[in-house]
Amino acid sequence: MNFWSINPYVGCAFGCTYCYARYAHRYVMERAADRDRLDDGLAAEFETMEPWLAFERRIFVKRDAPEILARALRTGGERYLGLIHGDTILIGSATDPYQPAERRFRVTRGILEVLAEHPGLKIVIITKSPLITRDVDLLGRIARHSDLRVQISLITVDRELARRVEPRSPTPHARLVALARLRDAGIETGVNCMPILPGITDEPAALDELVRQVSAAGATRIGACALRLDRSARLRYLPFIEQEFPELASRYKASYSHGRNVGEKYREGLTQRFNALRAKYGIGDGDRA
Fold first, then answer.
1. What is the total count of domains within the chain?
2. 287 or 224: which carries more pLDDT confidence?
3. Cα 79 to Cα 74: distance, rounded to the nearest angstrom
4. What confidence score (pLDDT) does residue 287 get?
5. What average pLDDT does the segment 72-79 reach?
6. Is the dihedral of CA 176, 165, 105, 55 positive or negative?
7. Are 124 and 90 in contact (CB under 8 A)?
8. What residues make up the domain containing 45?
9. What pLDDT sits at residue 33?
10. Is 275 a member of any domain?
11. Residue 125, exposed/middle/buried by CB under 10 A (0-12, 13-18, 19+)?
């Protein structure tokens, strides 16, 4: 990868039904089992609990992540040179760095404390949680000497719908308030409308209202992409559709029968719609659409 990926935790308690990162949990549990680092209770669960479910129920904490990062930045090397020449540090590519565990363990804050000592970096943080505003002091320090961007994940401003598809995530309103607070503090903050769920969050009026509120909160950009369904994500998401949106079940099976992506025509239409909404509300492009 042409970027550094830092995930302070493995797994995510928010339990979003569509999460693509559920595959990651199997690997860390297998490594821990191989090294006899699971207690009896976890070892028994490893044998019986599906990894895609363990992803949201058993969170692994990388307590020494700040120390390892500090050592990597201090000793330099080829990867460090990549950072100096423009590679990005992405925090939260496969977990939410501000999920509930962060209130107790503060691993993400420790990582930011390390990054605050190294100028000239490019850093992106992805989160759904307003807890990120706790670290406005550090984010401000980093932004003064590095290229820092926060991306708030938000796929709907409908509170009840959000609760169905993102069972334990912060409310849309709380995320919008956090976005506004970050912008008031001078932090560049955008929105990831990712993923858009076909037939659920893609209604034109709903997307219009989402972009309107995001723009009003001060977001500098918004990116969007349609749902991707890899194997581990299917194991959670498709049964959810059958239970909560049974009228869509056959459409999903057909639309994703040939791979992880919905059809090209749908994706092209989505790109056009978001281009029009960005123009309408005067908000910049995201990394993807």
1. 1
2. 224
3. 12
4. 52
5. 78
6. negative
7. yes
8. 1-119
9. 65
10. no
11. buried
